[in-house]
Design a protein that fits this description.
It is built from eight helices and 16 strands. The chain folds into two domains: 139 residues, Nucleotidyltransferase, domain 5 (2-Layer Sandwich); 107 residues, Nucleotidyltransferase, domain 5 (2-Layer Sandwich).
Protein backbone atom coordinates (compact mmCIF):
# COMPACT_ATOMS: atom_id res chain seq x y z
CA UNK A 1 0.00 0.00 0.00
CA UNK A 2 1.22 3.49 -0.78
CA UNK A 3 1.24 6.14 1.94
CA UNK A 4 -1.06 9.07 1.05
CA UNK A 5 -1.07 12.10 3.35
CA UNK A 6 -2.78 11.66 6.72
CA UNK A 7 -6.51 12.15 6.49
CA UNK A 8 -6.76 11.65 2.72
CA UNK A 9 -7.50 7.91 2.70
CA UNK A 10 -10.95 6.33 2.30
CA UNK A 11 -12.13 2.83 1.41
CA UNK A 12 -14.47 2.36 -1.54
CA UNK A 13 -16.41 -0.88 -2.06
CA UNK A 14 -18.39 -1.49 -5.25
CA UNK A 15 -21.10 -4.18 -5.20
CA UNK A 16 -21.80 -5.84 -8.54
CA UNK A 17 -23.90 -8.74 -9.73
CA UNK A 18 -20.99 -11.17 -9.92
CA UNK A 19 -18.25 -9.55 -7.86
CA UNK A 20 -17.74 -7.17 -4.95
CA UNK A 21 -14.54 -5.18 -5.33
CA UNK A 22 -12.86 -2.58 -3.19
CA UNK A 23 -9.71 -0.59 -2.58
CA UNK A 24 -8.43 2.22 -0.40
CA UNK A 25 -8.33 5.51 -2.30
CA UNK A 26 -6.19 8.61 -1.95
CA UNK A 27 -9.05 11.10 -2.18
CA UNK A 28 -6.70 13.96 -3.04
CA UNK A 29 -5.68 12.31 -6.33
CA UNK A 30 -8.28 9.59 -6.97
CA UNK A 31 -5.53 6.98 -7.18
CA UNK A 32 -5.93 3.59 -5.54
CA UNK A 33 -3.62 3.30 -2.55
CA UNK A 34 -3.52 -0.50 -2.86
CA UNK A 35 -4.46 -3.11 -5.44
CA UNK A 36 -8.16 -3.81 -5.82
CA UNK A 37 -9.41 -6.86 -3.97
CA UNK A 38 -12.44 -8.71 -5.35
CA UNK A 39 -14.69 -11.37 -3.84
CA UNK A 40 -17.53 -13.25 -5.49
CA UNK A 41 -20.97 -11.81 -4.89
CA UNK A 42 -22.78 -14.38 -2.74
CA UNK A 43 -25.66 -16.26 -4.30
CA UNK A 44 -28.32 -15.54 -3.34
CA UNK A 45 -27.13 -11.98 -2.74
CA UNK A 46 -29.27 -11.35 0.33
CA UNK A 47 -28.55 -8.29 2.49
CA UNK A 48 -27.00 -10.41 5.26
CA UNK A 49 -24.78 -12.36 2.86
CA UNK A 50 -23.59 -9.25 1.04
CA UNK A 51 -22.93 -7.43 4.31
CA UNK A 52 -20.75 -10.32 5.46
CA UNK A 53 -18.75 -10.14 2.22
CA UNK A 54 -18.36 -6.37 2.57
CA UNK A 55 -17.06 -6.97 6.10
CA UNK A 56 -14.52 -9.49 4.77
CA UNK A 57 -13.31 -6.94 2.21
CA UNK A 58 -13.03 -4.29 4.89
CA UNK A 59 -10.91 -6.56 7.11
CA UNK A 60 -8.68 -7.54 4.17
CA UNK A 61 -7.14 -4.08 3.96
CA UNK A 62 -6.45 -3.62 7.67
CA UNK A 63 -6.96 0.13 7.45
CA UNK A 64 -6.35 2.53 10.34
CA UNK A 65 -9.26 3.14 12.70
CA UNK A 66 -11.39 6.05 11.56
CA UNK A 67 -10.82 5.49 7.84
CA UNK A 68 -14.05 6.50 6.03
CA UNK A 69 -15.88 3.68 4.23
CA UNK A 70 -18.29 3.93 1.31
CA UNK A 71 -20.32 1.22 -0.43
CA UNK A 72 -22.12 1.33 -3.77
CA UNK A 73 -25.31 -0.60 -4.50
CA UNK A 74 -26.71 -1.37 -7.98
CA UNK A 75 -30.13 -0.02 -7.04
CA UNK A 76 -31.99 3.16 -6.19
CA UNK A 77 -30.96 4.30 -2.70
CA UNK A 78 -33.30 6.95 -1.30
CA UNK A 79 -32.59 8.31 2.19
CA UNK A 80 -30.51 5.21 2.84
CA UNK A 81 -33.28 2.76 1.88
CA UNK A 82 -33.03 0.47 -1.17
CA UNK A 83 -36.12 1.13 -3.27
CA UNK A 84 -35.91 -1.22 -6.26
CA UNK A 85 -34.42 -4.57 -7.24
CA UNK A 86 -33.83 -4.41 -10.97
CA UNK A 87 -30.14 -5.23 -10.57
CA UNK A 88 -30.06 -6.73 -7.08
CA UNK A 89 -31.76 -9.49 -5.05
CA UNK A 90 -35.44 -8.63 -4.33
CA UNK A 91 -34.88 -9.12 -0.59
CA UNK A 92 -33.04 -5.76 -0.58
CA UNK A 93 -36.22 -3.76 -1.21
CA UNK A 94 -36.96 -1.76 1.93
CA UNK A 95 -33.59 -2.52 3.52
CA UNK A 96 -31.85 0.44 5.16
CA UNK A 97 -28.44 -0.17 3.61
CA UNK A 98 -26.66 2.45 5.68
CA UNK A 99 -27.79 0.88 8.93
CA UNK A 100 -27.03 -2.63 7.63
CA UNK A 101 -23.41 -1.91 6.70
CA UNK A 102 -22.86 0.45 9.61
CA UNK A 103 -24.06 -2.22 12.02
CA UNK A 104 -21.90 -4.91 10.38
CA UNK A 105 -18.70 -2.84 10.49
CA UNK A 106 -19.44 -0.84 13.63
CA UNK A 107 -18.54 2.45 11.92
CA UNK A 108 -20.33 5.05 9.78
CA UNK A 109 -20.79 3.87 6.20
CA UNK A 110 -21.71 6.01 3.21
CA UNK A 111 -24.07 4.36 0.70
CA UNK A 112 -24.55 5.40 -2.93
CA UNK A 113 -26.17 4.16 -6.10
CA UNK A 114 -23.31 2.69 -8.13
CA UNK A 115 -23.70 4.90 -11.21
CA UNK A 116 -24.01 8.01 -9.03
CA UNK A 117 -20.71 7.06 -7.37
CA UNK A 118 -19.05 6.65 -10.77
CA UNK A 119 -20.38 10.03 -11.81
CA UNK A 120 -19.06 11.75 -8.69
CA UNK A 121 -15.60 10.38 -9.44
CA UNK A 122 -15.65 11.65 -13.01
CA UNK A 123 -17.01 15.07 -12.03
CA UNK A 124 -14.54 15.42 -9.18
CA UNK A 125 -11.35 14.01 -10.63
CA UNK A 126 -12.03 12.69 -14.12
CA UNK A 127 -13.43 13.60 -17.52
CA UNK A 128 -16.04 16.00 -16.11
CA UNK A 129 -13.77 17.96 -13.83
CA UNK A 130 -14.36 21.69 -14.20
CA UNK A 131 -17.41 21.26 -16.45
CA UNK A 132 -20.55 23.26 -15.73
CA UNK A 133 -23.99 22.95 -17.27
CA UNK A 134 -25.61 19.52 -17.67
CA UNK A 135 -23.29 16.51 -17.63
CA UNK A 136 -24.59 12.98 -18.22
CA UNK A 137 -22.49 9.99 -17.14
CA UNK A 138 -23.47 6.62 -18.62
CA UNK A 139 -21.91 3.38 -17.35
CA UNK A 140 -22.04 0.37 -19.66
CA UNK A 141 -21.61 -3.09 -18.21
CA UNK A 142 -24.03 -5.86 -17.27
CA UNK A 143 -26.67 -3.15 -17.49
CA UNK A 144 -26.74 0.60 -18.08
CA UNK A 145 -26.28 3.06 -15.25
CA UNK A 146 -26.69 6.82 -15.33
CA UNK A 147 -25.70 9.85 -13.28
CA UNK A 148 -26.90 13.37 -14.05
CA UNK A 149 -25.22 16.58 -12.88
CA UNK A 150 -26.39 20.17 -13.17
CA UNK A 151 -23.61 22.70 -12.56
CA UNK A 152 -21.72 20.06 -10.60
CA UNK A 153 -24.63 18.99 -8.40
CA UNK A 154 -25.83 15.40 -8.56
CA UNK A 155 -29.47 14.59 -9.35
CA UNK A 156 -29.54 11.18 -7.63
CA UNK A 157 -31.04 7.90 -8.84
CA UNK A 158 -31.91 8.89 -12.41
CA UNK A 159 -32.03 5.30 -13.72
CA UNK A 160 -31.95 6.39 -17.37
CA UNK A 161 -30.68 2.93 -18.26
CA UNK A 162 -34.24 1.67 -18.00
CA UNK A 163 -35.75 4.04 -20.52
CA UNK A 164 -37.90 2.20 -23.06
CA UNK A 165 -37.82 2.45 -26.84
CA UNK A 166 -40.74 0.89 -28.70
CA UNK A 167 -41.76 -0.77 -25.46
CA UNK A 168 -38.40 -2.44 -24.83
CA UNK A 169 -36.18 -1.79 -21.80
CA UNK A 170 -32.90 -0.36 -23.10
CA UNK A 171 -30.85 -1.82 -20.25
CA UNK A 172 -30.54 -5.43 -21.51
CA UNK A 173 -30.74 -4.33 -25.16
CA UNK A 174 -27.93 -1.75 -25.41
CA UNK A 175 -25.64 -2.71 -22.52
CA UNK A 176 -22.06 -3.88 -23.00
CA UNK A 177 -23.17 -7.34 -21.91
CA UNK A 178 -25.68 -7.46 -24.78
CA UNK A 179 -22.84 -7.12 -27.30
CA UNK A 180 -21.13 -10.22 -25.87
CA UNK A 181 -24.29 -12.18 -25.12
CA UNK A 182 -25.70 -11.76 -28.63
CA UNK A 183 -22.30 -11.87 -30.38
CA UNK A 184 -22.91 -8.48 -31.97
CA UNK A 185 -20.29 -6.77 -34.09
CA UNK A 186 -19.10 -3.37 -32.88
CA UNK A 187 -21.14 -1.74 -35.66
CA UNK A 188 -24.29 -3.63 -34.69
CA UNK A 189 -23.90 -2.75 -31.03
CA UNK A 190 -23.09 0.89 -31.73
CA UNK A 191 -26.30 1.14 -33.73
CA UNK A 192 -28.21 0.23 -30.58
CA UNK A 193 -26.08 2.51 -28.40
CA UNK A 194 -26.63 5.39 -30.82
CA UNK A 195 -30.40 4.96 -30.64
CA UNK A 196 -30.34 4.76 -26.85
CA UNK A 197 -28.03 7.73 -26.33
CA UNK A 198 -29.88 9.79 -28.94
CA UNK A 199 -33.15 9.24 -27.12
CA UNK A 200 -31.60 10.04 -23.73
CA UNK A 201 -30.00 13.17 -25.16
CA UNK A 202 -33.38 14.37 -26.42
CA UNK A 203 -34.76 14.18 -22.86
CA UNK A 204 -32.07 16.00 -20.86
CA UNK A 205 -30.01 17.89 -23.48
CA UNK A 206 -26.59 17.43 -21.84
CA UNK A 207 -23.61 19.64 -22.56
CA UNK A 208 -21.28 16.65 -22.13
CA UNK A 209 -21.72 12.86 -22.13
CA UNK A 210 -19.17 10.67 -20.35
CA UNK A 211 -19.09 6.93 -21.10
CA UNK A 212 -17.81 4.69 -18.30
CA UNK A 213 -17.82 1.06 -17.28
CA UNK A 214 -15.35 -1.64 -18.26
CA UNK A 215 -16.04 -1.15 -21.95
CA UNK A 216 -14.65 2.38 -21.77
CA UNK A 217 -11.22 0.76 -22.21
CA UNK A 218 -12.31 0.09 -25.80
CA UNK A 219 -13.62 3.61 -26.34
CA UNK A 220 -11.58 4.08 -29.52
CA UNK A 221 -13.56 1.27 -31.12
CA UNK A 222 -16.99 2.83 -30.69
CA UNK A 223 -16.94 6.48 -29.57
CA UNK A 224 -15.90 7.78 -33.03
CA UNK A 225 -18.95 6.02 -34.53
CA UNK A 226 -21.48 7.86 -32.35
CA UNK A 227 -23.26 10.89 -33.80
CA UNK A 228 -24.71 13.02 -31.02
CA UNK A 229 -25.07 16.75 -30.50
CA UNK A 230 -23.17 16.76 -27.20
CA UNK A 231 -19.47 15.86 -27.04
CA UNK A 232 -18.98 12.23 -25.93
CA UNK A 233 -15.81 11.30 -24.04
CA UNK A 234 -14.35 8.27 -22.27
CA UNK A 235 -14.41 8.12 -18.47
CA UNK A 236 -10.89 8.72 -17.20
CA UNK A 237 -11.24 6.44 -14.18
CA UNK A 238 -12.76 3.60 -16.20
CA UNK A 239 -13.92 0.68 -14.05
CA UNK A 240 -12.45 2.13 -10.83
CA UNK A 241 -14.87 5.05 -10.90
CA UNK A 242 -17.41 3.50 -8.53
CA UNK A 243 -14.75 2.72 -5.94
CA UNK A 244 -13.23 6.19 -6.23
CA UNK A 245 -16.54 8.06 -6.22
CA UNK A 246 -17.94 6.40 -3.13
CA UNK A 247 -14.59 6.85 -1.35
CA UNK A 248 -14.70 10.58 -2.15
CA UNK A 249 -18.23 10.86 -0.78
CA UNK A 250 -17.38 8.79 2.32
CA UNK A 251 -14.50 11.15 3.06
CA UNK A 252 -16.79 14.18 2.67
CA UNK A 253 -19.54 12.53 4.74
CA UNK A 254 -17.14 11.86 7.60
CA UNK A 255 -16.35 15.57 7.75
CA UNK A 256 -20.06 16.40 7.85
CA UNK A 257 -20.77 13.82 10.55
CA UNK A 258 -17.92 15.13 12.68
CA UNK A 259 -19.87 18.33 13.21
CA UNK A 260 -23.08 16.52 14.19
CA UNK A 261 -22.01 13.51 16.28
CA UNK A 262 -19.52 12.65 18.98
CA UNK A 263 -16.34 10.89 17.79
CA UNK A 264 -16.70 7.13 17.63
CA UNK A 265 -20.50 7.10 17.53
CA UNK A 266 -21.62 4.39 15.07
CA UNK A 267 -23.91 5.67 12.36
CA UNK A 268 -24.33 6.01 8.63
CA UNK A 269 -24.32 8.56 5.87
CA UNK A 270 -26.25 8.45 2.62
CA UNK A 271 -26.66 10.28 -0.66
CA UNK A 272 -29.97 9.96 -2.49
Amino acid sequence: MTNPPAGSLALGIDIGGTGIKGAPVDVATGRLAAARHCLDTPQPATPAAVAATVSELYRHFGLPAGTPVGVTIPAVVRHGIVRNATNIDPTWIGTHAGELFGGELGIPVTVLNDADAAGLAELGLGAGRGHTGVVLVITLGTGIGSALFVDGRLVPNTEFGHLTIDGFDCCPWASAAARVRENLSWAQWVSRLQEYLGYTESLVWPDLIIIGGGISRDADRFLPLLQLEAPVVRAHLENDSGIVGVALEAHAAQARLATAASPGTPGYAVVG
